[in-house]
Amino acid sequence: MARKTAFMGVFLALALILSYIESLIPINFGIPGIKLGLTNILILIVLYEKGAKEALILSVVRVVLAGFMFSNLFGILYSLAGCLLSFLVMFIMKKSDLFRIIAVSTAGGVAHNLGQIAVAAVVVENINMFIYFPVLMISGIITGIVIGLLAGEIIIRTGKIFDTEG
Amino acid sequence: MNKIISKRDIIFILILLAIALLFYFFAYKNIQNDGDIVKVTVNGELYDTYPLSEDREVDIVISGEVKNSFEIKDNAVHMCDADCPDKLCIKQGQISRDGQMIVCLPNKVVIEIESEEEDYVDSISK
Lengths: 166, 126
Hints:
By secondary structure, chain A is mostly helical. Helix content of chain A is 79%, strand content 0%. A four-stranded antiparallel beta sheet of chain B has the order 2-1-8-7. In chain B, strands 3-4-5-6 form a four-stranded antiparallel beta sheet.
């Protein structure tokens, strides 16, 4: 139990640092919502090496804490929708055992952007928000591939750490 | 191939890309023609409309406070000031064609450009 608590604490701290780094990188394509999704590396590692429950807890707590520190209440609502939908899709994709980590990560990236845009459309009560979707989908695919590659390499190289853990 | 990627993954990603491109062409088809009305909605309700051809500056006043102000100039609209924390609406730059929009999420303000003549795509999607 103590090991698990320590493990989750370390990963949460890492996730917050990555959120912070991400908030420092200005990416502006004229459309809000395009991000690298660095923390998804950690979510993927936890999902693959620990389990779905831990990955879900990590992503929700991360969004709430990072939201209070680097964004506002609005940003939390916005990214919570993205992270929950993304988690759901990645969980189902992994559970199906049909795909490797790259496809799981890519689907997660696209789902994240879909969730965000859905919230934005509800908030401004304007379905035309979905005009951004193709661009956000392509950006989700690109970042998803990169994140999936990184997470996969990290899992291959550090996977043993997780095995020894009780 | 290895632990990270398989043939099936590549096919999956290519299908996703194809869907995105398909969406792209459908979504952007109806912003080919120039728009002529600037429509401002706040919280889903119509705030006001302005002709795109007349240059002017507009302050959007919500419950007594100036929340956003935008400028119509040379048939294009851009947000010049906003009281929201992230200023993303200002960074979105200027819009000029039918279907384009500037969104200020924190203030729930949407500035859209519409065309008087409904084209084929519009009449289906509405």
